Amino acid sequence: MAEDCCSSNGNIMILACSGGSNVGQLSNQAAVELTQEGFGKIFCLAGIGGQLSGFVQSAKDVPEMVAIDGCQVGCAKAILEQAQVPLKNYIVLTEAGIEKNKNFTLNRSDIDRAKSAVKKATGRPSSTSEGSGAPSPP
User: Fold this and answer.
1) Spatial CA neighbour of 39 closest among 122, 113, 98
2) Count of alpha carbons within 13 Å of 65, Cβ hemisphere only?
3) Which of 59, 90, 60, 63 is nearest to 76 (CA)?
4) d(CA 13, CA 22)
5) End-to-end CA distance of the chain
6) Fold of 4-121
7) What pTM value is reported for the model?
């Protein structure tokens, strides 16, 4: 069974590609901040890609999920397809108007745009706290 770090606890499971470009890192940063804000909970995409049974089963069982790919290569989507995990909500950051490059200095406007795209994909409205980046209390 998957570790507690990967349980959804009734929140949206967030899977980020975390690839080797700005949009991959934006995907990850958006997932981290959305988790800190209580929107959902980041989950280990690598565990699913590694075919670890508890991770795969947790992803199959979760009621709400969003997968974030940075670009059209679609690594997160491919991982889910190979693990036979149904794709419930899916976004590609380059399709949200963020240009892919190798600049790893992320700017706030791109992070906020990524977070908004995730919320839109799940049908959840953007909150006024967007962009605060403040972690929620334990």
Assistant:
1) 122
2) 23
3) 90
4) 22
5) 24
6) Rossmann fold (3.40.50)
7) 0.83
